[in-house]
Amino acid sequence: MFVCAACGLVYELALVALGSYLIGNSITQASIVLSVMVFAMGVGSLAAKPLQDRAAAAFAVVEGALALAGGVSVLALYAAFAWFDVYATALVAVAFAVGALIGAEIPLLMTLLQRIRKQDAGSAVADLFAADYVGALIGGLAFPFLLLPVFGHIKGALLTGVVNAVAGIAVVLWLFRRQVGRGTRIALVSGMAAVLAVLGGTYALADGFEVAARHALYGDAAAHASGERTRP
Questions:
Q1: By the number of CB atoms within 10 A of the CB, which of 66, 128, 148, 218 ranks highest?
Q2: Chain-centre distance of CA 34, in angstroms?
Q3: What backbone phi and psi angles, to 5 degrees, belong to 225?
Q4: CATH code given to domain 1-229
Q5: Which UniProt keywords are present, listed alphabetically (predicted)?
Q6: Rounded to an integer, what distance in angstroms lies between the CA atom of residue 166 and that of residue 160?
Q7: Which residues contact 124 (CB under 8 A, 6 or more apart)?
Q8: Alpha helices, DSSP H only, in 23-86?
Q9: Taking a C-beta distance cutoff of 8 angstroms, is the pair 21, 153 a contact?
Q10: pLDDT at site 209
């Protein structure tokens, strides 16, 4: 579960970092992303209430959607900036979508923890927050020291989406396998495989996309420069 929390924080940091890279006003970008995402988390928590009867399957679907939305978020925003000139609107939309999905995780996980461990609400909240904070530490350190310098913004977010998808389905099939039937398990695995295929295919095309976007922004010289290139 802490892996899912780590991925959520990485998405958040990636959006802030991309905005700072493209726009340059880091304080404004951080304020927009954080405020929209925190608000959206509350909306997502409320939206997840009707799903608690099928919490395990709903959690897997939420994780798949989050992996896809968070994984392609940087690429989508970079495209919005390079070609469509709608970066601010796209940033708010992406931050809201990712935040809402992160928020939907919390009530679903609490419901599942109470079912499998027969815990009261206070104990479930304590366990959930402990895993969440450990994940925040891991994600907060992994982004600036591993993902960003080694893979860059675009590929780093896509890899995080892959980890998110694998962790999400693993949690359901391992910890909560008794909460879902065989047919549901097959459907969830198939859906997550489709998410992984999309993320993997996008990862394979990421370098070409980056060159095209740089060409649109800066022209041939910047698009093909290799010596002093800073990856988004």
A1: 66
A2: 14
A3: -70, 140
A4: 1.20.1250
A5: Membrane, Transmembrane, Transmembrane helix
A6: 10
A7: 110, 113, 114, 117
A8: 26-47, 55-79
A9: yes
A10: 95
Burial class (CB within 10 angstroms; exposed 0-12, middle 13-18, buried 19+) of 21: middle
Question: Cα(44)–Cα(165) distance, rounded to whole angstroms?
Answer: 19
Containing 150, the helix (H) or strand (E) segment is: none
Q: Is 217 a residue whose pLDDT tops 90? A: no
Residue 118 predicted with pLDDT over 80: no
The token pair that represents 47 in the structure block: 């939206």
Average pLDDT over residues 43-72: 95
pLDDT of residue 224: 53
- Closest to 188 measured CA to CA, from 57, 52, 63: 57
**Under 8 Å between Cβ of 77 and 91:** yes
Closest by CA position to 63, among listed 99, 14, 33, 102? 102
Radius of gyration of the chain from Cα atoms? 18
Confidence grade of residue 127 (pLDDT, cut at 50, 70, 90) = confident
What gap in Å lies between CA 64 and CA 70, rounded to an integer?
Answer: 10
* pLDDT digit string, tens, across residues 133-143: 999 999 999 99
Q: Cα–Cα distance between 222 and 51 in angstroms, integer?
A: 48
Note the maximum CA span of the chain: 62
Distances from the Cα of 191 to the Cα of 8, 40, 51, 137, 151, angstroms? 20, 25, 18, 29, 26
Q: Is pLDDT above 90 for 199?
A: yes
d(CA 60, CA 170): 9
d(CA 192, CA 171) in angstroms, rounded, equals 13
Whether residue 101 contacts residue 41, with contact meaning beta carbons closer than 8 Å, is answered with: no
